[in-house]
Model the fold of this input.
Amino acid sequence: MKLDSSQFSNRKFVSCSLVVLAITVVSVLGTPDQTDTDGSTNSEEDETTVLKFEFSDESGLTRQVTTSFSNMTVLQQFTGGVAAGDFDNDGDVDLYVVGTDDAPNALYVNDGTGKFNDIAAEMGVDFIHWGSGPAFGDIDSDGDLDLFVGAVEGDPFYLLENRVIGEDAENRFVDITDTAGLLLHSDSTVSAMFADYDQDGLLDLLFTHWGDRRQVNNDTETLWKNEGGSFFTNKSTPLGISLDLVEEGVELTLTTNLFDVSGDGLPDLLVAADRNESQTFINNGESFVKSTDRRVIKDQSGMGAAVGDYDNDGDFDWFVTSIYDLHVGGSSFGNRLYQNDGQGFFTDVTDVTGVADGNWGWGACMKDFDHDGDLDIFHVNGWEDWEEYRTEPSRFFENQGDGTFTRLDVFDIGIIGRGQGRGLACFDADRDGDIDILVVNLNHPHLVLYRNNSTNLGNYVVIKLRGSGSNTYGVGALVTLTTSEGKQIRQLGASNNFASHNPLEVHFGIGTVTEAEVLVEWMDQDRTTTDLSITEVNRVYTIEQPAQDGLQLSVQFGDGDGLYAAGEVVEITASEPAEGYHFSHWIVSGGIIGDPHAATTTFEMPASVATVTAYFLPGVSPSADVSVARRWNEVLLAAIRNDYARPTVHARNLFHVSAAQYDAWAALVRNLDPDPKPWLLGAMEPIECPLADLSPFDFDDADMEAALSYASFRLIRHRFSKSPGHAQIIRDTQALMSFLDFDPAHQSTDYTDGDAKALGNYIASCYQAYGEQDGANEDDDYKNKSYTPVNPALEPHEPGNPNIVDLNRWQPLQLESFIDQAGNLVDEPPEFLSPEWGSVDAFALTEAELTEYSRAGEEYVYRVYHDPGTPPMIDGVLGDEYKWSHSLVSVWSSHLDPTVGRGADVIDISPNGIGNITIDQYPLTFPEHRNFFADDGLDPGTGYAVNPVTGAPYEPQEVPLGDYTRVLAEFWADGPDSETPPGHWFVILNTVNEHPDSTRKLRGVGNDRTELEWDVISYFVLGGTMHDAAITAWSVKGWYDYVRPISSI
Done:
């Protein structure tokens, strides 16, 4: 296939012919029989190339693995990997290496000769975790490589901004994970890759996850869009990937690559996956459409991958490593090589090409190791658990130039290792012009560098790119090199070998040719091109992208993106706010904003690329005259709506955040009689949270707002760090801090000099410590420690309830399709929420209100507050009350339909028609409930004759009973986007407080209190009440373990 502009007739071309754009001549060290180091060329056609690699025992790559395979889980045996890239921009390739948790990760800086020194500790990246799949990429368009580090089995992952060099240099990497919007519910991220899927110039992130259970439409967390400002949002479901990635309920993806295989200029997605689930997706510009032809894409255990044009026909082919055991009588037929027809349709040419027998393959490279103008294949392998794969060497397939490969004996060419290979990087470590090999083993030796010391190699050309816009390294660009022998193509980056990747440069072997033409097709929306005529080979060239028609403006959460000239004034408009949100303000990186508080305004472009971000606030508009406590309460309620529906947990969150706000206010407020006393701040038990003497300092309202804000910000971020809506919670908290002009980077907890912000941080740290030991089991995500249901699950879609064992005890529900609050399908029955919540530290409950119980066979002691006594049992003296009360649920359910029966009756829901129940009318015993509720299930309230303030009757509000009951049910429900019942009371409180007739008088007397004082105290009191109510209710529910009405009915 010929690659020229006619292939992209639907795209605008900007062509710039250059004799030489920027030429970087790199000094090299090598022996006389290696590729010439002075620019001379190899033109002796009768000299035979002899491939030879030599193990480098002086490389300095000393990181080792000591964990034995017997102590590794299956998934841990998948891990490891290396990211190769020039993080310090000194022209050579550095390495970031991860592996097991028995040694810290290593950042190896290259001295230019292929000798490495580990500086991870001084750069702040010496993490100890079970790491996997590191990746380099410039996410903030500042011209240096940032870093992502994955991990498996729930270990922490990291996104790190490079501040080693540049204007913001701090000589380290800075962890920005918490603010980047990346919340992975997948336990394991095996591989990671930076690429620009939408060609907006900002590098996006792609992940693979092995072993995570998925159901239909479960989000696979595969592709994360870079929104600008180093913030990412999960686009896996909107782009169609989640729908078709997983076929059998468990995600087993291992290696992604993003290449234009269909020839339309848009990068397509290739996913190597275990157990016959490798997939191909075509990018149509709006989504990724599954194109997998299972008759062709049939690798049985896809692990590693390499993409390249092995047959030099002008399109990208796909090599996938797998398992081969035909030689021992098995059925695994090994690696697969998929030949592309130029339009994204593949043919399996494995048997013809001779690359099937790869043992147990992992990381793979397609590189021209012998400089003869075609791509060879190298991959590592091994599996410790099976003897026949335990000590097998790696595989090297030499391209014969006729569509076939010859498998070389790796020992003959100097690749002598028999380690358990996993990750792999193929790159020029010593800048002598040829491709060396770094193998990452999961045993000893961990890192093995093989220097390419082949003799009589052909000539070469190496191309680096420097983008003029946001994509500073030109990731995804197509580079075509044309010589008298034909054309070769390469793509720069957006590739992965398996948990590893090569550096952002492309390498061409060109044999005896001494001149070449290079065409770069940049991965921008205009498909800009650059030409370079090369008359000196054996060089590294850096090609700069022609200046675009303007500078890139990225508008995050709004419109106005585009290319503009410096000084040009652009109109920008914020996106329509989501329900419950209000546009707040703009934040810019460079440039001048017209009105930062107007949803539509102007922006004057600076002399560089720029990002403008629209911020939105939940609950109340930015112009509303409310206290800062109210604003943080709205952020907290929004966070609860973005979390799982857990009333107990959120009653606790509402109380602790409100108490932290109260402590901040109480510590700083002056001139109140009596002085308010903080709740946790200043206490020495149950944790130590001492309060230093603050009397020498004068604090004002601004100080109280600062302390309250930092305490709320830190505690909300901490409590919701694992929420399904984590990205939105990050945006909300960031938006309010920005609106209040507070810097989240201020993390000091030393408030002894009167720093109110530090005091807020200190208070948050106290509540974090308190939350680790208050009995809620927060560290283990509030899981039950002892409770186990006695009944198997009820299956409501089946007739009857044959599974129930005890009709008096709680029963789980096994729904055909259960959707959690995050919108995820869950295939396990939801467990009993918080049956042990009586053990949680309370606000005002006392030991006098406590009864303790224990069950036979359980060591756990159930703490029950305000014990109401044993409820009616089906086989007890109150058996009739059991049946009547449970059947009443059916009666109430019949009220929900406003078109039939009682639900169609019109009732007056004004105070004239409902309410006015005297205290002596409420039932005190179970049998008295029959007298309280009428046969139709309604209470005896008769309403009020007149409004006690106006003396006039209330205006009737007549509606069908079904509409009224349904609205009530929906309001108190725990479904998606609900702030849960404890949060409902805060919504009611806020609604009452903002009513124009509402006063802020304590017990209705005295002067109005300030809004801040009123809100802080009312939130504190209501929060404590909700927390104690939750402890009381769930302590009773946990001990009596009472049956659900649906189970008994």
